[in-house]
Amino acid sequence: MFVCKEPTHMRASFDTLFEKVRKILLQDPTSGHLFVFINLKRTLCKCLYYDGTGLVILAKRMEEKHKFSQINPRFEGDVTLTPAEFSLFFEGANLEKRFIESPPEAKRFLKSRKNSTCDTSINA
User: Fold this and answer.
1) Are 36 and 47 in contact (CB under 8 A)?
2) pLDDT over threshold 70, residue 41
3) Distance (Å, rounded) from C-alpha 50 to C-alpha 71?
């Protein structure tokens, strides 16, 4: 399941969502994957998938006081959800921490540890 990080106007229908999958998500809309689109206010969600015979749109409008989880637009790479995460997302659970990038300092530290040439072998 792929999530579009760019807010989507909910008047978008089959053709518009199909093109967003191809041009923004860089995926094949007929692959059988589920593609998730959220509006700017995070109150509406549309999902597009191909079931082998045609395109299907699933839509949900959250009731007052409820919003879909925010997806960090600066998160590098594709935003994908497991079936369990999508279920939680669709029910309104907060998944924001799932899409937070590590601070640059942590990335540098991890990279330096990965590149270290420490020999930890013990000769007997």
Assistant:
1) yes
2) yes
3) 24
8 A C-beta contact, residue 32 and residue 50: yes
Pairing assessment for the beta strands 55-61 and 44-50 based on DSSP bridges: antiparallel
48-77, pLDDT tens digit by residue? 999 999 999 999 888 877 777 666 666 676
Half-sphere exposure of 23 (CA within 13 A, CB side): 7
Asked if residue 99 lies in contact with residue 79, where contact means CB atoms within 8 angstroms, the answer is yes
43 phi and psi, to 5 degrees? -105, -15
The label of the residue with tokens 């229908």 reads 13
- Main-chain phi, psi angles of 16, to 5 degrees: -65, -45
- Mean residue pLDDT of the chain comes to 77
